[in-house]
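Dear colleague,

Thank you for sharing your sequence with our group. We've completed the structure prediction you requested, and as agreed, I am returning the results in plain text so they can be pasted directly into your records. Please verify that the sequence below matches your submission; if there's any discrepancy, let me know and we will rerun it promptly.
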Amino acid sequence: MDDTPRKPPPGQPPEPLIPSHGGYRNLKSFQVAQLAYDVIARFKFQWLS
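Please find the predicted structure tokens below.
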């Protein structure tokens, strides 16, 4: 995996980490965290209720 930041094409501004329109749901870290929460909640309600 290459950790070097990618440069935008010439003439285009760099893309911010979180876009101004609030596209956090498209971030891979958010998707993984949401999946982990859903799995834990399902386990909890199935086995600990």
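Summary note from our side: The chain is about 40% helix and 0% strand.

Kind regards,
the structure core
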